[in-house]
């Protein structure tokens, strides 16, 4: 369970790290101009109905039209799927929610079946049905929560108790339900006055999502600390806490890190975790290693014992596979990898050994709210699983699309390096002598920092100092220098 949430921010980026027992387990980002739209509710306009795809394209103001397939075009999940033309027509205004961010050449995936998550409940307006989360293992508790939700739901709506609701009082659930219905009433009121495309509800704040969706609920939770760097991160953290309203009462107070010594994310090991997560190779204690390769179609994971063939025997191979199984779950979550995952474990002859490996893998996946289960070895010895994909993976967000031919590690993008420079400038502004700050950086990075209409337009104001940028071709893209004077 998450015990620490750390926040840092600059004018170009906000990062939230979820930490359990000293290990960074998940990272949430919000970049200026590239905010996640997942969970956002829009009044969109249908621009094209494509019968051949059995889908429609909906303009929501995201640059690329959203994709709405026939099953998700039904506001009522109990209605027959039918054809896309049975549900929407070109030119119509439709209320939609973003289920997955745009990835690559694909626009955002949309649905008309809205789901508004609270701390303990999920409101599904217009979708009758009360079903507690399947992750609630106690049948009696699930039944109790279902009875309470049935009393709280308006006629015709769904109200599903979340895993975090286990042990919560009826008063806490009622408070959550009131907040969700107030949100829904506000969306409906805004819809009546809006012209498509229009954003009616924004759910992009990563700290709000982390506190609402990831930390569980008292008394089961272990969250003991929320710490934010002084400056923009502290402002963002206070705003997130205020947005949570009554839900924030039971949260720890926000600690403000004054920036003394090393940066917060360095002291907590988050920066090292990010660097490790950008490598496709993960060493294991036995000397084996995992190789993780992301492609557009799927993610392939190979367990390499380094022994070749059957060298080392079944016991040695089993040990390497068990280590790999325990590491794969955390690795997928930290890297934000979604979609289909295929794992090639080192070959095991004994059925009971394969069962042990599969059990270890599912145990490692159990704490990840986005992961499904792995169901067994195929006839070729492969294991498949799926993890819910809602946006780009960490490497897709931070790195160039393709690695250089001679290097398996993907190169960081100019935007990622610019954000690293912005964080370094914030630290330098606190400690360097008075006067302007000068940055020497790769030309494409310097251009991004200097763009008056770009994500770093407010950097000088945030620093309280003048900023001089000097492009240089010396060194690689990730090389930069900051001087004061």
List the helices and strands and how they pair.
Elements: E1 4-10, E2 13-20, E3 23-31, E4 41-50, E5 55-59, E6 66-69, E7 93-100, E8 109-111, E9 116-117, E10 121-124, H1 139-152, E11 158-161, H2 170-193, E12 198-201, H3 206-213, E13 225-229, H4 232-244, E14 254-257, H5 264-267, H6 270-277, E15 281-283, E16 289-294, E17 299-304, H7 313-335, E18 339-344, H8 351-365, E19 382-387, H9 394-398, H10 414-431, E20 437-441, H11 443-450, H12 459-463, E21 467-471, E22 481-484
Parallel strand pairs: 1-13, 13-14, 17-18, 20-21
Antiparallel strand pairs: 1-2, 2-3, 4-5, 4-7, 4-12, 5-6, 7-8, 9-10, 10-11, 15-16, 16-17, 18-19, 20-22
Structure, described:
The protein is of the alpha+beta class. The protein has 4 domains: 1-36 and 206-278, 2-Layer Sandwich (Nucleotidyltransferase, domain 5), CATH 3.30.420; 41-113, Beta Barrel (OB fold (Dihydrolipoamide Acetyltransferase, E2P)); 280-387, Aminopeptidase (3-Layer(aba) Sandwich); 414-484, Hypothetical Protein Ychn, Chain: A, CATH 3.40.1260.20. The chain is built from 12 helices and 22 strands. Strands 4, 5, 6, 7, 8 and 12 form a 6-stranded antiparallel sheet that branches. It starts with a strand and ends with a strand.
Keywords:
alpha+beta; Nucleotidyltransferase, domain 5; OB fold (Dihydrolipoamide Acetyltransferase, E2P); 4 domains; six-stranded antiparallel beta sheet; five-stranded mixed beta sheet; 24% strand; globular
């Amino acid at each position: 369970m998450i015990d620490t949430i750390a926040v840092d921010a600059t004018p170009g980026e906000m990062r939230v790290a979820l930490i359990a027992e000293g290990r960074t387990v998940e990272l949430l980002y919000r970049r200026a101009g590239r905010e996640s739209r997942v969970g956002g509710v829009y009044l969109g306009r249908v621009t094209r109905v494509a019968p051949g795809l059995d889908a429609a394209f909906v303009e929501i103001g995201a640059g690329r039209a959203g994709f709405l397939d026939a099953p998700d075009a039904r506001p009522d999940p109990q209605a027959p799927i039918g054809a896309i033309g049975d549900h929407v027509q070109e030119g119509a205004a439709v209320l939609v929610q973003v289920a997955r961010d745009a990835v690559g050449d694909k626009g955002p995936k949309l649905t008309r079946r809205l789901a508004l998550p609270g701390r303990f409940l999920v409101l599904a307006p217009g979708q009758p049905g009360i079903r507690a989360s399947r992750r609630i293992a106690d049948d009696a508790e699930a039944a109790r929560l279902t009875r309470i939700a049935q009393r709280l739901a308006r006629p015709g709506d769904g109200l599903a108790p979340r895993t975090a609701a286990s042990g919560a009082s009826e008063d806490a659930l009622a408070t959550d339900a009131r907040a969700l219905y107030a949100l829904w009433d506000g969306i409906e009121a805004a819809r009546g006055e809006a012209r498509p495309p229009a954003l009616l509800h924004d759910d992009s704040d990563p700290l709000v999502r982390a506190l609402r969706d990831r930390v569980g609920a008292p008394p089961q939770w272990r969250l003991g600390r929320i710490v934010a760097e002084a400056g923009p991160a502290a402002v963002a953290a206070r705003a997130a806490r205020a947005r949570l309203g009554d839900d924030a009462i039971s949260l720890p107070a926000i600690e403000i890190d004054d920036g003394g010594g090393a940066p917060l994310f360095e002291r907590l090991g988050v920066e090292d975790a990010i660097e490790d997560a950008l490598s496709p190779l993960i060493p294991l204690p036995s000397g084996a290693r995992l190789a993780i390769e992301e492609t557009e179609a799927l993610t392939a994971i190979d367990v390499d014992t380094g022994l070749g063939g059957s060298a080392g025997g079944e016991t040695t191979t089993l040990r390497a596979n068990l280590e790999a199984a325990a590491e794969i779950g955390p690795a997928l979550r930290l890297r934000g990898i979604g979609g289909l995952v295929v794992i090639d474990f080192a070959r095991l002859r004994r059925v009971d050994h394969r069962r042990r490996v599969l059990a270890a893998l599912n145990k490692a996946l159990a704490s990840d709210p986005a992961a499904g289960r792995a169901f067994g070895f195929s006839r070729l010895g492969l294991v498949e699983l799926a993890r819910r994909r809602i946006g780009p993976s960490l490497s897709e967000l931070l790195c160039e699309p393709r690695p250089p031919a001679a290097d398996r590690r993907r190169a960081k993008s100019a935007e990622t390096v610019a954000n690293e420079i912005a964080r370094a400038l914030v630290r330098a502004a606190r400690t360097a002598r008075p006067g302007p700050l000068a940055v020497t950086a790769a030309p494409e990075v310097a251009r991004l920092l200097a763009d008056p209409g770009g994500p770093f337009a407010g950097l000088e104001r945030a620093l309280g100092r003048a900023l001089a940028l000097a492009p240089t071709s010396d060194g690689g893209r990730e090389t930069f220098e900051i001087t004061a004077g």
